[in-house]
Amino acid sequence: MARYVVDVMPKPEILDPQGKAVLGALPRLGFAGVVEVRQGKRFEVEIEGDATPESLAEVEQMAQTLLSNPVIEDFEVRTA
């Protein structure tokens, strides 16, 4: 069975209010020195069969059409 990980993150120019909320909470919890936090999503996709360039391309198509919003998010697919 082939396993792929899809990481989805807001594009750098997109505001990230969840990341900002975490950034604001960290100093109150005693964590100093953090200058930026961005929050994203992670998907783990299992495909029948072995990892192949074709199955990788299929998962990339999934990420492009369903798992991310390409207008405001970037994604990266890798074999797990």
UniProtKB/TrEMBL annotation:
The keyword Electron transport does not apply. GO terms for cellular component: cytoplasm. Pfam families: PurS. Its EC number is 6.3.5.3. It catalyses: N(2)-formyl-N(1)-(5-phospho-beta-D-ribosyl)glycinamide + L-glutamine + ATP + H2O = 2-formamido-N(1)-(5-O-phospho-beta-D-ribosyl)acetamidine + L-glutamate + ADP + phosphate + H(+). It is found in: Cytoplasm. SUPFAM superfamilies: PurS-like. InterPro entries: PurS, PurS-like_sf. GO terms for biological process: 'de novo' IMP biosynthetic process. GO terms for molecular function: ATP binding; phosphoribosylformylglycinamidine synthase activity. It comes from the Bacteria. Pathway: Purine metabolism; IMP biosynthesis via de novo pathway; 5-amino-1-(5-phospho-D-ribosyl)imidazole from N(2)-formyl-N(1)-(5-phospho-D-ribosyl)glycinamide: step 1/2. Its main location: cytoplasm. Keywords: ATP-binding, Cytoplasm, Ligase, Nucleotide-binding, Purine biosynthesis. NCBIfam families: phosphoribosylformylglycinamidine synthase subunit PurS, PRK05974.1. HAMAP family: PurS (MF_01926). Part of the phosphoribosylformylglycinamidine synthase complex involved in the purines biosynthetic pathway. Catalyzes the ATP-dependent conversion of formylglycinamide ribonucleotide (FGAR) and glutamine to yield formylglycinamidine ribonucleotide (FGAM) and glutamate. The FGAM synthase complex is composed of three subunits. PurQ produces an ammonia molecule by converting glutamine to glutamate. PurL transfers the ammonia molecule to FGAR to form FGAM in an ATP-dependent manner. Belongs to the PurS family. Part of the FGAM synthase complex composed of 1 PurL, 1 PurQ and 2 PurS subunits. This is Phosphoribosylformylglycinamidine synthase subunit PurS. It comes from Nocardioides currus.
